[in-house]
Design a protein that fits this description.
The protein is mostly helical and about 290 residues long. It contains twelve helices and no strands. Conversion of 1,4-dihydroxy-2-naphthoate (DHNA) to demethylmenaquinone (DMK). It catalyses: an all-trans-polyprenyl diphosphate + 1,4-dihydroxy-2-naphthoate + H(+) = a 2-demethylmenaquinol + CO2 + diphosphate.
């Protein structure tokens, strides 16, 4: 029987910025076009948090029963380590995804943005089939695309649309930037796992690109948000304040360019997520004030 601490670790709290950051950026963009609604923003945040926790438990379950996590280097996995029974982790995954679905349905009904039902359904299917099912797309190198779409484009633009009934160009810029940051988090994770993933036939994009190519891809991903910042600054000069968050990337970038491997890459995930959150907060404030 897993302890409470192990269950919390199994939920992967280090990934929570991937859920919070896009909603924060979306809220800032919504305020910028005078469309802010506190309760819609809160519901959007709860949906994002429930979804990412559900994804994490679903991945733990699916990778665990396949044996993918038996020799992993990173933090605890409940099924792979034997700390929790697969059925218990599956129940946690389905419960979390169910909560996300119900909250999302409530948000759609209360807001009247009915077409978002389709987007919500796609997000739930994407959450499960990332590592679940007979042919999980995460095992074919498509995980990064999914993260960019779901935790970048869908999360940011969905947050704006559910409040405003439209999206703005600054919102699109935020969606691209947050999507790149979020994808960089996954890229660092998959870079760490290249040796073990290759052994079990998990052909992530990192496995396909190789060690050097994956490190270059990470650097590209964390660079794009600052190009977006400069473009946003043309119409919203206050947005340029977000450039200061580049300082926080020094440590993770050193780990990537310095050839860090295994446990040495674990802090990169945390630090990249925190940079994403800091960028989102500052950009949201700038758009709101602008």
């Amino acid at each position: 029987m897993a302890t409470v601490t192990q269950w919390i670790e199994g939920a992967r709290p280090r990934t929570l910025p991937n859920a919070v950051a896009p909603v924060v950026a979306g809220v800032g963009a919504a305020i910028g076009i005078d469309a802010f609604s506190w309760w819609k923003s809160l519901l959007a945040l709860l949906v994002a948090l429930a979804l990412i926790i559900g994804v994490n438990f679903a991945n733990d379950y699916s990778d665990g029963i396949r044996g993918t996590d038996e020799n992993r280097v990173g933090p605890l996995r409940l099924v792979g380590s034997g700390a929790a029974a697969p059925k218990a982790v599956l129940a946690a995954a389905l419960t979390s995804l169910g909560v996300a679905g119900l909250l999302g349905l409530a948000l759609v009904i209360l807001s009247g943005r009915w077409w978002l039902l389709l987007m919500g359904a796609v997000c739930l299917f994407g959450a499960w089939f990332y590592t679940g099912g007979k042919k999980p797309y995460g095992y074919s190198g498509l995980g990064e695309i999914a993260v960019f779409v779901f935790f970048g484009l869908a999360a940011v633009l969905g947050t704006v649309y559910v409040q405003a009934g439209t999206v703005s160009w600054p919102a699109v810029g935020c969606a691209v930037a947050v999507g790149c940051f979020s994808t960089a988090v996954l890229t660092a994770n998959n870079l760490r796992d290249i040796p073990t993933d290759r052994e079990v036939g998990k052909n992530t994009l990192a496995v396909r690109l190789g060690d050097t190519g994956t490190r270059r891809f990470y650097l590209l991903l964390v660079g794009v948000p600052y190009l977006v910042t400069i473009l946003l600054g043309i119409a919203h000069p206050l947005a340029l304040i977000s450039l200061v968050t580049a300082v926080l990337l020094v440590t993770p970038v050193k780990a990537i360019t310095g050839g860090g491997t295994g446990p040495g890459l674990i802090p990169v995930l945390r630090d990249t997520g925190l940079v994403m959150l800091a960028w989102s907060v500052l950009t949201a404030i700038a758009l709101a004030l602008g």
